[in-house]
């Protein structure tokens, strides 16, 4: 069985694997938590600059610093 994820679902999974909370991400890129949730669930779109910040933060984040990740 093969699963196909959208780009947003892929980033959402990566965010969750890295234990990045919506609250942390929202404060870093300057949008609300509900807005990010709706974005990840493909209800709304972010402006291109915010979308780039969202993706860059997830890709560059190593993980929750309180969890012992480097």
From TrEMBL:
Pfam families: HTH_3 (PF01381). It comes from the Bacteria. Residues 14-50 form the HTH cro/C1-type domain. InterPro entries: Cro/C1-type_HTH, Lambda_DNA-bd_dom_sf. This is Transcriptional regulator with XRE-family HTH domain. It comes from Paenibacillus forsythiae. The lineage of its organism: Bacteria, Bacillati, Bacillota, Bacilli, Bacillales.
